[in-house]
Amino acid sequence: MKHPPLAPPLPSTRRRAGTPSMNLKELVMVAVAGEIVPPTQGSSPYRIGRDGVPRVVPGPGGIVISHRVGDPCVGLAADHLEPGVAVESRQRALKGKPNAANLALNTYACVGNAARVLTGPCTDQKGTVTGKHGGIDHVLVDFPDSVLRRLRIGDRIQIYSHGLGLRLPEHPELTLYNCSPLLIRRWGLRSAPDRLRVPVTHLLPAGIIGSGIGRDNSCRGDGDIQLSDPQVRRRFRLDRLRFGDLVAIRGADHRYGRTLRPGYTTIGVVVHGDSLKSGHGPGVVSLITGPARSLEPVHEANANLARILDLRKEGQIGRRPEPGRTIGASDRLDRLASALM
Question: What is the pTM for the complete model shown?
């Protein structure tokens, strides 16, 4: 008789010199689950862009085979694209809100948590949580290419939540959300006597965050980076954003929801792609927030989940389209689609 696989082990309390300590002995690991959900649409297939032009393009949901964490998230023929797979719990609660199980899934899942396929041809294959998408309330999970090609809509995914309540005792002024201990351990954070040095790819002003601002919590959902101003796009290199980039937002206080506050900084991760709609754009999930004097963003071009969590080989991260071609139109994907028909 085949025994079910064991849950991932709890991380060691040992740490490298210079890295921040964590309250690991206080944390608990809880298994939560959902299923891979299909894309959905309203009565009209059109998405009206901020330029007033209606378009029909892929949106969130489903199994995205062409793009993963580490790939460009701007300039795609898509709207709010979710790399990897979109997971949602559709179990109905007997008490409270009907979607209470999915709300819990979106709260419990932390970036870097281990995931495992429970059903279908990919049973027991492992993945990694890379983000959450508010509004539609999906948890995003990355899998290797070979697994993504065989996963099916409806396959159940179990996530080993570990990170709720995470603190950095040496930095009590900082608040953490959506962070797994694994992410903190591998990120390259460095503790100084009065601040935490954090590698990021971009430094952004809080004023360009649109949809998601004003929400009363930061442990679910995301805030969108607006790309409507060409000068802002150029100044802050927004066209070079990738899924999985770690970014710093100046003037953002996300301790008790997403608010604007001078003197505060929030560090987050880019989780979904650009959008055609006004007020929307690449989504950022909050990870660390606190006084600006206590957080020092340090530019690091490789500060991306694909590298930090070893999700992809170095040569695959941040690949660009060939001249005259788009990433999603490669012959390899055409052959794959033909093979699956």
Answer: 0.89
